[in-house]
């Protein structure tokens, strides 16, 4: 369903601003309803397996034997697609936060490290009737090729960029080690980021942009950082702005510092409580963008399950 919603958000390039406004409002309302009331802590959606649909608000059972938790890999990929498009329409960190949550907790987990086995359902708890295991293929094999498509286009999710007159911008949505290069009026702009993201919150940047352009770089600060950060070299007052979860480095800062580094704070373990309306007696631990969970060691799930594995 979120794949269908991703289409109206492609209308950015049309001149039908009134239609775009209406669709944006509708998308925003649906997005908020999905994220606030129908999404698992891992970014999985689709609680009801039989029909691959949402349940009523806060119906978020942990596993098949509790009556739900489909959280299909494809569904989270679609959420990422929608988030990426919404970031084009309206640069808000909350879209990037969910994109990152889905990527690391309901999408990357869906493929084994050797790339040979996949999950389709991403329930939060296994059971003897429906173990949490990866399979080499499926009768209806939508998820493995969808993962291949996502991985091959991952660079498009990391950042977007553009220019207008003599101004250029780069919006960095995800942190990793990667390099972006593009041209504006025949001149090259490049931005490289290096980090051990996932495990630590330091990101080093190298930027090269021509003097003839005013270049702005915007960096997403995930909400779990509580928007606390350190920028090195430190900026002069007025050279940076924090707006809707993105830290804007204005042209004077970018021009003066071809090398700079971001350190996000509050990367350490954080406890996430379940919403009381879910009626779930579980506790979740997060560190940075990763959600951790553990199953009771006494649960006899047998070979092949995630129990005791590297999940
Ligand atoms: Zn699928």
Automatic annotation (TrEMBL):
Residues 170-232 form the Non-reducing end beta-L-arabinofuranosidase-like GH127 middle domain. Pfam families: Beta-AFase-like_GH127_cat (PF07944), Glyco_hydro127M (PF20736). Signal peptide: none annotated. Transmembrane segments: none annotated. Residues 22-155 form the Non-reducing end beta-L-arabinofuranosidase-like GH127 catalytic domain. It comes from the Eukaryota. This is Glycoside hydrolase family 127 protein.
